[in-house]
Amino acid sequence: MPATDKTGKSGVSFTEQEALQFHQQGRPGKLEISPTKPMATQRDLSLAYSPGVAVPVKAIAEDPSRAFDYTTRGNLVAVISNGTAILGLGNLGALASKPVMEGKAVLFKRFADVDSIDLEVDTQDVDAFINSVRYLGPSFGGINLEDIKAPDCFIIESRLRELMDIPVFHDDQHGTAIIAAAGMINALHLTGRDMKTTKVVCNGAGAAGIACIELVKAMGIPHENVILCDTKGVIYKGREEGMNQWKSAHAVETSARSLYDALKGADVFLGVSVKGALTEDMVRAMAPNPIIFAMANPDPEITPEEVAAIREDAIVATGRSDYPNQVNNVLGFPYIFRGALDVHATTINDAMKVACAQALALLAREEVPDEVAAAYRGNRPKFGPDYIIPVPFDPRLIHTVPPAVAQAAMESGVARKPIVDMATYRNQLSARRDPVAGTLQRIFSKVRQQPKRVVFAEGEEEPMIRAAASYVSQGLGQAILIGREDEIREAAGTAGVDLNRPGISILNARLSTKNQDYAEFLYGRLQRRGYLFRDCQRLVNNDRNYWGAIMVARGDADAMVTGITRNYSVVLDTVHNCIDTKPGHRVIGVSLALSRGRTVLVADTAVIDMPTSEELADIAEEAAHVARRLGYEPRVAMLAYSTFGHPSGERSERVREAVKILDRRRVDFEYDGEMGADIALNMDKMAAYPFCRLSGPANVLVMPAFHSASISTKMLQELGGSTVIGPLLVGLDKPVQIVPMGAKDSDIVNMAAIAAYNVT
Ligand SMILES: NC(=O)C1=CN([C@@H]2O[C@H](COP(=O)(O)OP(=O)(O)OC[C@H]3O[C@@H](n4cnc5c(N)ncnc54)[C@H](OP(=O)(O)O)[C@@H]3O)[C@@H](O)[C@H]2O)C=CC1
Ligand SMILES: CC(=O)C(=O)O
Ligand SMILES: [Mg+2]
């Protein structure tokens, strides 16, 4: 099933119900606040609150710059709106803007590790708004104004910039202008145009429109070559209706009065207005190889499909993530603030904006890594008409854009804390990336290239139904829900999932014509293990995990995901009754623990209770293989309570022996041990053992026994705040993944994709 159509639109889709559920499920909304210091003991309380807190209070009173050391200020940005121009939806008020502002706040965190909180200010009075924000400076390192209508936004931003000594940045103005400028630099380059002769028409003379044309003029496009339009048409010299000082500054002498007139022979269309504002006739009227940036959200002025139907020579960009060339301020604001915060900038000035636009434009011309291919619907993008701007999931953005912004801040004299060592800064930035997304993106991308049929065995359960729908809508393949059709449809109705879409099927084992065949298959495997034929018939008819596993074993499906209603070990026994171990492999569980920029694989977290030395060596090989499948070069630590012989003991002896076995097997990956987890993960501690053969901190931890593996990963998750994915079941001849009981639909989709990808 193709995941993209000819315009490159991804197969990702969702219903309104799904969008509401996404926001509602679990804790309503998209973010929460969690403490960074322990709050467990009386001492913690004394330090965090009274009396200990008085010490940093006095230090900050003496030297305000210490607030960056002792409080969240240095990494905290407020996203502030009054909801007067929510995306392209109009003035829907402060409260309705909250989902967008929460969204911006989480994007700050996700892409640039900037902590952020949304503040919705319920006033449309400019002075009242300014007064609400101006006194908040001590709380934040920066203010990101969002979705405030023009011309109020111009007054608000410029007053707050005067009143506050931290960066105040209206994202819809400058964020949009920066990204549009970056895309335009590249689109002009690709079409061989010169700034001096390029004719631009901008539709929308609000926050985004005015800022976009100011920046393109600053880049070298002559004033008279730019025509600005609004709801009244062309803004020409002498027009009086619907004008303000910001529009007047861009009025030109022209006989054009409508957008259509203005676009005759134009090279570039910048749309920051509303859905559908650009018609097919207008596109036809543009110059050869036109550049069309239809940036209105959530729906563009014209869709890429509509343009493609009229002419093939256009470069088209939209503000959306489901088309190629996403010109959206998400590419800018997280990284601009990252750079600004890291140098304690007093403001975000033009030099920093231009540096950001140039860094983005240049990055798009470089070869892209796997993660970008993953985010780009599986096709590796190459600089050209369908790839003029990096994608938001590009992992290089975090170490490319903030250094450029920080450097510009230092050179233009607004950095209060210059960066001394840029190379180290870049490395620190890379470590801020969220590794979960990268790993999953890669897996999702590979699956999208070869979509798979996945059995969602517990088909009557709501999370499974939601996961199946999401699996299909993400272009990962077909989903087969096992269960009674009436029950599934009723549960789907309650869950708000539309099952009448291609790619989802329902299969009731009792009604299937394969019933007899599957029972015979199972009987063939279990007859010498105490099972009668009728036992097998009953299992096939009644146990959906048997049915699903046999489907996979028999090639009627490619993979299976299950587990939300049964214990792991019970399901594993079922699966193993139907599917063999892959020749040359061993069935084990590998968990991925992801924490603070680091991914570590832990094994065996699911199967072998107390492994022998031989089995530990097998586990190491299996886990190293999985690490490679997931894109990591394995460095395996064989863990124990002792390190290289001290303290000695029988249990560590088993691990030492496993290392010798790996020596004898001449495996092709780095390994060493036995060692403690602290030595394995901390290079400073590892330095005490200069003979250790690991070239860096371990990324595969082989635990001495199942109990230590299981206990440590669960503790990491509950106490350490790590994300733990898995255990991934590896070593089976056919891929099956078992989720923990009670898993959420998003976890199930991840495991379904991992099953489809087949890590063995
Ligand atoms: N892709 C991206 O990153 C971004 C996209 N945008 C999108 O840009 C659009 C505008 O946002 P913003 O500038 O903040 O909003 P504003 O409210 O500040 O400005 C809207 C402007 O659009 C004009 N307009 C509305 N309808 C039409 C129409 N049919 N034809 C011509 N002009 C029209 C208005 O004209 P008038 O002055 O006559 O009322 C006004 O000038 C939104 O759709 C928003 O989603 C915004 C920021 C970032
Ligand atoms: C992307 C954005 O900020 C907007 O559409 O308003
Ligand atoms: Mg906006």
UniProtKB/TrEMBL annotation:
Protein name: NADP-dependent malic enzyme
Subunit relationships: Homooctamer.
UniProt keyword rRNA-binding, yes or no: no
Gene Ontology BP, a term: malate metabolic process
Binding site for a divalent metal cation: 146-147, 172, 297
Residues annotated to bind NADP(+): 86-93
Homology family: In the N-terminal section; belongs to the malic enzymes family.
Gene Ontology molecular functions: acyltransferase activity; malic enzyme activity; metal ion binding; NAD binding; oxidoreductase activity, acting on the CH-OH group of donors, NAD or NADP as acceptor
Active-site residues per Swiss-Prot or TrEMBL entry: 104
Species lineage: Bacteria, Pseudomonadati, Pseudomonadota, Alphaproteobacteria, Hyphomicrobiales
Organism: Stappia albiluteola
Keywords: Metal-binding, Multifunctional enzyme, NADP, Oxidoreductase
Domain Malic enzyme N-terminal: 28-161
Transmembrane segments annotated in the record for this chain: none
Pfam family, one: malic
Domain called Malic enzyme NAD-binding: residue spans: 173-410
Keyword Protein biosynthesis: no
